[in-house]
Amino acid sequence: MSETLWWQHGTIYQIYPRSFQDSNGDGIGDLEGIRQRLPYLTWLGVDAVWISPFYPSPMADFGYDVADYCDVDPIFGTLEDIDRLSADIHKAGMKLILDFVPNHTSDRHPWFQESRISRDSPKRDWYIWRDPAPDGGPPNNWISNFGGSAWQFDEATGQYYYHAFLKEQPDLNWRNPEVRWAMHDALRFWLDRGVDGFRVDVIWHLIKDAELRDNPINPAYEPHQRELNRLLEVHSCDQPEVHEVIAEMRAVLEEYDERVLIGEIYLPIERLMAYYGNDLKGAHLPFNFQLLQSAWDARHIDNLIREYEAALPEGGWPNWVLGNHDQARIADRLGPAQARVAALLLLTLRGTPTLYYGDEIGMVQVPIPPERVQDPWEKNEPGLGFNRDPARTPMQWDDSDHVGFSNAEPWLPVDHRAPERNVATQKQDHSSLLSLYQRLLELRRERKALSIGRYVSVTADGDILAFRRESDGENLLIALNLGGTAHRLMLDEGTTGRVLLSCLGRNEGAEISGSVEIPANEGLIIELAD
Ligand code: GLC
Fold first, then answer.
1. Which of 131, 255, 401, 429 is catalytic?
2. Which of ligand 1's atoms lies nearest the C-alpha of 377?
3. How far apart are CA 151 and CA 33, in angstroms?
4. What's the whole-model pTM score?
5. Three-class SS of residue 273?
6. Domain 454-528: which CATH class?
7. Average pLDDT over residues 458-486
8. In the chain, where are the structural domains located?
9. Residue 152 C-alpha to ligand 1 middle, in angstroms?
10. With 80 as the cut, is the pLDDT of residue 1 above it?
11. Residues 23-58: pLDDT tens digits?
12. Ligand 1, CB within 6 Å, residue ranges
């Protein structure tokens, strides 16, 4: 597949490092733990590993509050550990993607410590400081993503600083060129060490309105929503100048071979597309979260796939995401039967798939007793269902006390409710979700049509979602039943084919002709004859 790059034909696997594997018995996962589990990832058949932040951090937001961009937090290991992990990932033929968090630092970062000392500090302008409003309140009405004002008053100098997330996460001022240069150096530090790319945290937030104007009131706000939604984020993110900042980051990656820039962006399709950049000089992959945000409805998903495909800029490479550390587990949202259909969808759509650790064994939301809540968002806006801990619990390797994750009590509770929901059990069972993922990944590697082929829409109705993937004489029909009753999909006259893979493990190898019966909760990959 020399005509496409690794991040185009490959599959990305996201690891939340606190929860993958603990190697030193402190109940928290670490880099050495990930290294020990690499044979599993090789067996599963993924191509790249993205690791959520492991930099030195006070852990106010579990690593998304970085105190040093060029080191490893002792909880996770050392620079030697990341070098060893990187070497082994590459030896196994995989790639390593780091999480880069440029929008904000920790309030303990030396840059912020220096910035807050005085109004004349050389680093004052590295962050966003403003005088109080005439009434002494915050400079504008912006709301933090985790609730409350996005401004924190700092007694020492009598000004407020802006934080889009926690007050322990002050936003950097990306309008200041010195900030850009310092961050480019951090990127080069890791690129020089051989990492293959970055997933850039909240990239659409980097530039804010130059005048910091108030955001307008959201007339559609409802009280069960997060506080952030009281306003429309017109001025606080997604500003036109952000594309220049991203193009500069991209240019840093272009100093090296075949590195990938992935942007975390929660925006509707039409606004998302701008993040490919002018002449595709922006992010290689602006994360596409459509499947996470959409109702599990065949007509709806069919439309969004068509809309997304049609909106892509010429040459822009698509991608799809089913889960991440900020969202409820997919198997919980859909239930076990449709979790299998979702796996088939993710791994047959055109574009780079990103798989969240544990989704391949159907991990579900793990109940967190109030005294064990860790997530700062839940602590700030409790009881509204925003807790991210339930989707961040330890990877379930086996059915032992600490599920093979650690020999000590893990930092979050482990799930013991289903004896089969672990790697060891599912690996032995050819009908398990894990085996389905493994077979899908294998097929995706074998079949160019699946990894890099064209997407062709297919008309269907009711609960059926269908499309074709085509490449050099390979013609695959994907037909999924997102509902609980059987349907028959009519094919063009004279069409014949053979079932290559079935979610339910039925009728594989069967010949079809003219139409195909799709049982409830079934997903089929059918090879069509010419
Ligand atoms: C991103 C991360 C999330 C974090 C936030 C602030 O959305 O995915 O986990 O809390 O940014 O860094």
1. 255
2. 10
3. 38
4. 0.98
5. helix
6. mainly beta
7. 97
8. 6-104+177-441, 454-528
9. 19
10. no
11. 999 999 999 999 999 999 999 999 999 999 999 999
12. 61, 64, 101, 165, 201-202, 264, 325-326
